[in-house]
């Protein structure tokens, strides 16, 4: 019997895009799969549900592709997958695409709006409001290849995002983890995660998630 359901709400860094391709890593190699397997190996009965959309922002629309605002439909996603023990929010990278003039402050406001939306989702009366873990993505490196134009200037503009997200987490009683403390973006495109970084991140999130869901 699965005791704990964990929803991962994220973007292409978690979807598992292979840098400079349109291919995807298999589930067991993506960090959500690493997380699920690590928890089960530790005797924690858990199911990880992925909701990861390429290009998703915290709370901003993509002028070229509809539905990329994380706020769009998130309450229904919580309702759909409940009961949930934990929701992991790992967004923010796409807030700094060149089409936006966002600051870390605006991105932090977007994350705070997501937290509020998760908590007001119309779940069934006897179902628990899930705990929330905010994961700050690793900082954008030097964008290369197809990412160079799309993320022009993002490296400089996203500096300090982790600290801003940590303040959101403290102010809204959420867990927090800085992915940039253990992972780096790919040297291939400067934005996404290489396969080995998925494993590192999944194992680290397992440590945090285990503490949050069994307390």
Automatic annotation (TrEMBL):
GO molecular function, one term: hydrolase activity
Keywords attached to this entry: Hydrolase
Residue ranges occupied by any SGNH hydrolase-type esterase domain in the UniProt entry: 11-196
Coiled coil: none
Keyword Hydrolase: yes
InterPro entries in UniProt: SGNH_hydro, SGNH_hydro_sf
CDD domains named among the record's database cross-references: SGNH_arylesterase_like
Stated name of the protein: SGNH/GDSL hydrolase family protein
Lineage, opening ranks: Bacteria, Pseudomonadati, Planctomycetota, Planctomycetia, Pirellulales
